[in-house]
Write a structure and sequence with these properties.
Layout: E1 3-8, E2 16-21, E3 25-26, E4 31-39, E5 45-61, E6 66-79, E7 82-84, E8 89-97, E9 106-107, E10 110-111, E11 117-125, E12 128-136, E13 138-139, H1 143-154, E14 158-166, E15 178-185, E16 194-203, E17 207-216, E18 225-234, H2 243-256, E19 288-290
Parallel strand pairs: 3-13, 18-19
Antiparallel strand pairs: 1-2, 2-4, 4-8, 5-6, 5-7, 5-11, 9-10, 11-12, 14-15, 15-16, 16-17, 17-18
Helix pairs in contact: 1-2
Length: 315
């Protein structure tokens, strides 16, 4: 599939840029391949730089406000200075590495409701910069992401929404200035203790740190609160464990805790709060478990239909 966008970068008679992705589908840790095609205008143009960058929509929280903004989080120059003659055609190939922490936008061919991702092309001429329209990009999960998402489906959780929160999670090594939250409604078997679960993946070349935030229901004498759990898995664990049992064990362990993992109401590393209590304040010692060692609970009957239709979310 080729995704193509024609632009007239600097008005009538100016040069135009046409960025073509060989394939707009990718995964964290892979690349986006394509070419930037330039066509000269009516006059010679001295181009200072051609840059491509990944952009996405990020939620930003202030003291009393919350708003969404477009953020470029990864960029690469594909060309330095060059002179484009009138009507000259020039093709510049590129291979853009996709950061390991790039958020997932699509699961089994369906866009996660709330997620956007695009590749933006910048053309700089004589101190004027044209930021082009976006070429849509789809970031698909790695195998370990797929297994964990499928496990939530098998356990009966229903996808609610996904977004990106600006900030850092305390005790977790991040390279990007935001983290993804994939939100689920609790399945009936957990509904007595959990309202919703927010799932965060922080991925590296070695593996994935899985962060769970469970919105716990209050009891007869206790108020509801958020419980947090952190678990480390390796990419090589993909076919070694029963992921439904592993995730069930994580949920049971996370929700069995009380005050020790309560958020500390503060930003982490100078960044903003997480929504509500702010997972940025999560204590660093939260349950670092290994996937293979977290098997608990009973095997749940497979209610997953195989098409992940639920991940489209409610429009």
């Amino acid at each position: 599939m080729v995704f193509k966008k024609m632009l007239s970068a600097f008005g009538v008679g100016g040069p135009s840029v046409d960025t073509v992705l060989t394939n707009p589908n990718t995964r964290p840790g892979l690349t986006l391949d394509g070419q930037v095609n330039l066509v000269g205008g009516d006059a010679e143009a001295a181009i200072e730089q051609v840059v491509i960058g990944l952009v996405t929509r990020v939620e930003v929280e202030g003291h009393d406000t919350e708003y969404a903004g477009t953020m470029e989080f990864h960029r690469m120059a594909v060309s330095g200075s060059l002179v484009l003659a009138p009507k000259q055609q020039l093709s510049i190939p590129f291979q853009l590495p996709v950061p390991w922490e790039t958020p997932i936008t699509d699961v089994y061919g369906q866009r996660l409701h709330g997620m956007t991702m695009g590749l933006r092309t910048e053309l700089a001429i004589a101190r004027a910069v044209d930021k082009s329209d976006l070429d849509q990009v789809a970031v698909h999960p790695l195998p370990v992401h797929e297994r964990i998402l499928e496990a939530f489906q098998r356990l009966g959780f229903r996808f609610k929404h996904a977004d990106l929160e600006r900030g850092h999670i305390r005790g977790v090594q991040q390279t990007l200035p935001f983290y993804q939250e994939i939100e689920f409604f609790a399945s009936p078997q957990y509904a007595s203790t959990i309202r919703e679960v927010e799932l965060t993946f922080v991925t590296s070349q070695r593996g994935v740190e899985v962060i769970l935030e469970c919105d716990k229901r209050g009891g007869f004498l206790s108020a509801g609160h958020d419980a947090f759990g952190r678990y480390q898995v390796s990419h090589t664990d993909v076919d070694r464990v029963d992921w439904a049992q592993v995730v069930d064990g994580w949920l049971r362990e996370t929700t069995s805790r009380y005050g020790s993992l309560r958020s500390q109401y503060g930003p982490s590393h100078g960044h903003g709060h997480r929504r509500g209590h702010g997972m940025g304040g999560m204590v660093a010692g939260a349950a670092l478990g290994v996937a293979g060692g977290m098997v608990a609970g009973e095997m749940i009957e497979d209610a997953f239909e195989g098409d992940f239709g639920d991940f489209g979310g409610d429009e």
